């Protein structure tokens, strides 16, 4: 999935941004973000990144930095980051466990996909030599998280080899997404423009991560 496709998805989601923004006025935003981030390892089209950015934009508005006015209830920036990061790791572990127990049926399904097979081979080699940075990069790439988590489980990688990198990936993605929304609102104002620019930056990072993940390793 390229940058253009990602931007189209972002624009489609932004058309309903006012409805999403209404959720940021209460504690339910944490539940919505957690469920979306947890499940998008299985359904990568879920706009979890957009939700995190929108909530972070509301948090910036609550600080008064963007508008000079402080709403009554806005997300806490630290709680939002921890919520997104924790849900990301839990989703990875669920996918990992399901793939690990998938047995021969899952192995045959993966074998039919050259992309999944190649991803498995690269992941195994990367983890074996301590190069788990691939897991972090894949977290930013569209559907990369799914390929890595399912691939780690299907190839029976040890959880102690996978989990630390999954945690680092989830935290890096959460911090980046929250920072985009928060500082975007401070610089551009807590408006749809700040959210749109932040979402575009998120998809640009995804496009860059996709390029790095697909690039052939140097000899």
Automatic annotation (TrEMBL):
The keyword Glycosyltransferase does not apply. Keywords: Cell membrane, Membrane, Transmembrane, Transmembrane helix. Signal peptide: none annotated. Its main location: membrane. The chain crosses the membrane at residues 20-39, 46-65, 77-99, 162-184, 190-213. It comes from the Bacteria. InterPro entries: DedA-like, VTT_dom. It is found in: Cell membrane. Residues 71-182 form the VTT domain. It is a multi-pass membrane protein. Belongs to the DedA family. This is VTT domain-containing protein. It comes from Streptomyces osmaniensis.
């Amino acid at each position: 999935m390229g940058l253009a496709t990602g931007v189209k998805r972002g624009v489609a989601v932004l058309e309903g941004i006012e409805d999403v923004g209404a959720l940021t006025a209460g504690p339910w935003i944490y539940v919505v973000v957690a469920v979306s981030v947890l499940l998008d390892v299985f359904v990568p089209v879920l706009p979890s990144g957009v939700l995190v950015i929108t909530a972070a934009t509301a948090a910036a508005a609550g600080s008064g930095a963007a508008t000079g006015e402080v709403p009554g209830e806005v997300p806490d920036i630290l709680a939002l980051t921890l919520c997104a990061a924790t849900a990301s790791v839990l989703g990875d572990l669920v996918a990992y466990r399901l793939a690990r127990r998938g047995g021969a049926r899952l192995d045959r399904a993966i074998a039919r996909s050259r992309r999944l097979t190649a991803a498995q081979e690269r992941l195994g080699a990367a983890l074996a030599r301590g190069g788990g940075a691939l897991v972090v990069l894949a977290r930013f790439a569209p559907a990369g998280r799914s390929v890595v988590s399912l691939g780690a489980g299907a190839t029976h990688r040890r959880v102690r080899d996978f989990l630390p990198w999954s945690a680092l990936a989830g935290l890096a993605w959460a911090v980046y997404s929250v920072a985009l929304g928060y500082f975007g609102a401070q610089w551009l104002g807590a408006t749809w423009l700040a959210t749109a620019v932040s979402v575009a930056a998120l998809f640009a990072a995804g496009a860059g991560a996709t390029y790095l993940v697909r690039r052939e390793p140097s000899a």
